[in-house]
């Protein structure tokens, strides 16, 4: 029976409140709220005006739904069944990485002289986390830099795989580079890490929500994801998956909510030494987030309906005609090459050597075109709310300034 193709999503601009004259190609910096998320936020704020009738279970129920939705989005399953107990509520990527760093000291087989493998030009939260544990345990950092030549993705992936050897304790890698949009073959990296007994930790912030992610195939030990970018939720609220390696680990804080029977408020003085199962011990304190949690729930439900693969297809088609024009102006970009090429929701456009990235970003901003300058590239990050007019505005300004 032939496979049924998923129809291309139409533009979803009517689901957002972005002004007509704004060309926002910058979701990698901050996602705009959809109207649905905006409305839920207003409703949540109104509910807080009068907290009468608030029940103990209300402190937990919102996070339960969010864990289930995030598990669906990343295919977090155990024996075919969703496993939301493996999801923790975190305030940031740095918090989730700090959990990993704290527990790395107790990783079986950890010893002085082993290394942590990172990629070059990584986001600071994925770099700063390891300094203290390296000092304490005598570990070293190996950074696999980006190749100078084009295409970069295939070579970068091979160099990363080569760096993961029997002396590796931990590998930290994203699905998509936060500046360049280059993809990393997480299935191959995960397999190599398991072969040598290394932990694999993924910062999914610049991919999950807009880029297909299959936890069951990758089999990482931890995944951390901020909520305000491609999850399209509120700031200072994120999600993290912690696998079996962390089941008996040490949390960063000892929140009362993370203990067994913590919803029984009349018994809170019966101090409970036992944590709730799996990743629950890693929840940030006061993780109820009565205002933000309903908004994240709404955004996750919307993303599941849209489907990350369809977001990739939409953004690929949206930008396709722009790339040949920009390449003629002397720009370069990573070619498409499957799991080792470029993504379509986040694209690094290398500017000609004579161009000043910050000056070009400012010229674009004057024409209401929002992108980000990162090192020598413009980071272009479209979504379903973008239209061909947004792309035309980008190309028009770049043609003028280049």
UniProtKB/TrEMBL annotation:
The keyword Transferase applies. Keywords: Aminotransferase, Pyridoxal phosphate, Transferase. Residues 86-394 form the Aminotransferase class V domain. InterPro entries: Aminotrans_V_dom, PyrdxlP-dep_Trfase, PyrdxlP-dep_Trfase_major, PyrdxlP-dep_Trfase_small. It comes from the Bacteria. Gene3D superfamilies: Aspartate Aminotransferase, domain 1 (3.90.1150.10), Type I PLP-dependent aspartate aminotransferase-like (Major domain) (3.40.640.10). It holds the Pfam family Aminotran_5. One of its GO terms (molecular function) is transaminase activity. SUPFAM superfamilies: PLP-dependent transferases (SSF53383). This is Aminotransferase class V-fold PLP-dependent enzyme.
């Amino acid at each position: 029976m032939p496979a049924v193709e998923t129809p291309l999503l139409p533009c979803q601009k009517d689901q957002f409140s972005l002004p007509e004259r704004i060309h926002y190609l910058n979701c990698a910096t901050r996602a705009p709220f959809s109207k649905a998320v905006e409305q839920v936020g207003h409703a949540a704020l109104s509910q807080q005006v009068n907290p009468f009738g608030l029940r103990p279970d209300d402190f937990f129920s919102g996070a339960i739904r969010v864990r289930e939705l995030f598990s669906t989005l990343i295919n977090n399953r155990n024996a075919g069944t969703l496993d939301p107990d493996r999801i923790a509520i975190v305030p940031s990527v740095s918090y989730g990485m700090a959990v990993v760093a704290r527990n790395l000291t107790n990783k079986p087989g950890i010893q002085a002289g082993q290394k942590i493998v990172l990629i070059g030009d990584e986001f600071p939260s994925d770099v700063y986390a390891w300094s203290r544990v390296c000092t304490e345990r005598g570990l070293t950092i190996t950074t696999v830099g980006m190749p100078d030549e084009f295409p970069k993705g295939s070579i970068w992936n091979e160099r990363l795989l080569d760096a993961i050897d029997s002396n590796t304790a931990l590998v930290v890698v994203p699905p998509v580079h936060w500046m360049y949009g280059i993809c990393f073959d997480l299935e191959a990296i995960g397999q190599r890490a398991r072969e040598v007994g290394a932990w694999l930790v993924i910062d999914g912030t610049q991919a999950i929500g807009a880029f297909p992610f299959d936890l069951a195939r990758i089999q990482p030990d931890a995944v951390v994801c901020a909520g305000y970018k491609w999850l399209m939720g509120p700031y200072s609220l994120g999600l993290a998956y912690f696998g079996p390696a962390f089941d008996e680990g040490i949390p960063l804080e000892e929140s009362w909510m993370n203990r067994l029977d913590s919803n029984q408020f009349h018994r809170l003085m019966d101090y409970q030494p036992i944590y709730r199962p799996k990743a629950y011990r890693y929840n940030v304190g006061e993780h109820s987030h009565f205002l933000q949690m309903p908004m994240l729930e709404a955004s996750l439900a919307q993303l599941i309906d849209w489907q990350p693969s369809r977001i990739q297809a939409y953004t690929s088609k949206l930008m396709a005609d722009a790339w040949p024009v920009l390449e003629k102006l002397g720009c370069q970009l990573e070619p498409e090459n499957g799991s080792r090429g470029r993504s379509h929701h986040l694209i690094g456009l290398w500017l000609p050597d004579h161009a000043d990235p910050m000056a070009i970003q400012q010229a674009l901003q004057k024409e209401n075109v929002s992108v980000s300058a990162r090192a020598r590239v413009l980071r272009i990050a479209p979504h379903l709310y973008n239209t061909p007019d947004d792309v035309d505005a980008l190309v028009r300004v770049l043609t003028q300034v280049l």
